[in-house]
């Protein structure tokens, strides 16, 4: 935060304790709030009570540091010869709080998985998130606005959109976050870093609104579009931010049970088009998308069509418990004419197109959930050291330490499991991954969201009313507690994924009696 260079003595500040002039000090910075008294959300009286004094602990007991950044123009100078004692992390910096970073980023821990390019990418993406994604995420999560074109274009220019699609040919020739990682060295650990760093603004609705539809929808174009010119046109348009895309599978009739889809696609007598009729529900980014990668029933099975927004396509926002910034949508297709060239994969074999997507989608969701759990651990550790209750810090109460121990253990164990699976993704041929990793990834995601449930529950108990309040100190906890269920439902419900994991194990059981 830029503070005017003027300096004052504490005696000078003390004089500004009058009807017309209210000054105080927060961490050696002098604030003149005389014109802010009426506007202060916590009221005028509390500010007058600390007029002329050092209000550092009073302030930090009630506000997040980001409040000072928002109202930076109230700062008029600093106290002569004094140094700030509150630790602020600058954009891109690691947190000094224990367990706030995964062990591979925590000195002196070592990890066999991460190379220099991973560390460079982590630093670059942390800075990018802190500077560009975070401020917009916090604002839009509150207002419900969709992701801005400016941010999309910035992510496009930096290769962030490209990297979020994981390793592959689509990275070729692109400079990735100023050269932090080369396209050919980008692996699933880099992918994991991208997914985890982008979560740190702690705005679950905006997180999905920020092009999650592309992450799950564009894969089908990259892997299953048969016409090279069409594939190039669509990927160029989406990667440049000109057009938006989403994945439209779920219906009111069929959620995780994709075989039950009722949206139909019937071929015209000349065989040149499909006529699509039906509805889709809970489609992330649908309201602002131009392309819909859509699951349809083609009579003898499921197929996947690329449908462009046009005649017969209507989208309406759905209000859910997270922010409208996610762009959650109800879609109706009313006699929509789709060229047969828009078929992705084979007719009636769309299940393979959809299944090929699931592993990466579920794994990305596990990355994000675990990172969000870690943020809750960090916030709770900070709060427990700062908050005084019955004359003691919260952290001095054994019951609070028990809760934190459980939260930390759940977070660390899931990160380790994630890294083990990510290593397999880096080294197992893609063709074998669906056979061997579908089950473990399903179980990982299921277990992550069960852990998130426990962590949300314990965190709210630590935070009290603040954990239930959208603004102020408990913002991260409130958002997590209200939204972790999205990860337990989207991309395959916990129960379905648990069952998938066990059924995959059943297939691999030896035939003989054991
Ligand atoms: C430059 C200094 C300050 C600014 C810019 C400021 C700003 C704010 C804002 C934006 C809120 C709304 C909640 C949030 O977003 O956190 C708030 C709430 C509040 N503030 Fe301040 N504040 C300042 C100093 C203080 C001080 C020194 C005190 C106490 C001595 C105080 C007491 C309160 C109280 C009691 C609330 C309501 C908290 C709650 O509902 O949990 N504020 N303030």
Annotate the secondary structure layout.
Elements: E1 7-8, H1 10-14, E2 23-26, E3 29-32, H2 44-49, H3 56-60, H4 66-70, E4 75-79, H5 116-143, H6 149-157, H7 160-163, H8 188-197, H9 204-209, H10 212-224, H11 228-239, E5 245-248, E6 264-267, E7 273-284, E8 291-297, E9 302-308, E10 313-317, E11 328-339, E12 343-344, H12 350-386, E13 388-389, E14 392-393, H13 398-427, H14 430-463, H15 475-489, H16 494-507
Parallel strand pairs: 1-4, 5-8
Antiparallel strand pairs: 2-3, 3-4, 6-7, 7-11, 8-9, 9-12, 10-11, 13-14
Helix pairs in contact: 5-8, 8-12, 10-11, 10-12, 12-13, 12-14, 12-15, 13-14, 14-15, 14-16
The structure holds protoporphyrin IX containing FE.
Task: Looking at this protein, list some descriptive labels.
single chain; 514 residues; alpha+beta; Flavocytochrome B2, Chain A, domain 1; Butyryl-Coa Dehydrogenase, subunit A, domain 1; Butyryl-CoA Dehydrogenase, subunit A, domain 2; 4 domains; 4-stranded mixed beta sheet; 45% helix; binds protoporphyrin IX containing FE
Task: Write structural notes for this entry.
With 514 residues, the protein is an alpha+beta fold. The chain folds into four domains: 7-79, Roll (Flavocytochrome B2, Chain A, domain 1); 105-210, Butyryl-Coa Dehydrogenase, subunit A, domain 1 (Orthogonal Bundle), CATH 1.10.540; 240-348, Butyryl-CoA Dehydrogenase, subunit A, domain 2; 362-507, Butyryl-CoA Dehydrogenase, subunit A, domain 3 (Up-down Bundle), CATH 1.20.140.10. Helices cover 45% and strands 14% of the residues. The chain is built from 16 helices and 14 strands. It has helices spanning 10-14, 44-49, 56-60, 66-70, 116-143, 149-157, 160-163, 188-197, 204-209, 212-224, 228-239, 350-386, 398-427, 430-463, 475-489, 494-507, and strands at residues 7-8, 23-26, 29-32, 75-79, 245-248, 264-267, 273-284, 291-297, 302-308, 313-317, 328-339, 343-344, 388-389, 392-393. The protein has a four-stranded mixed beta sheet with strand order 1-4-3-2. Helix 10 (212-224) runs antiparallel to helix 11 (228-239), helix 12 packs antiparallel against helix 15 (475-489) and helix 13 runs antiparallel to helix 14. The longest helix is centred in the C-terminal third of the chain and has 37 residues, at 350-386. The termini are far apart. The model has no long low-confidence stretch (mean pLDDT 95). The structure holds protoporphyrin IX containing FE (HEM). Protoporphyrin IX containing FE binds next to helix 2 and helix 3.
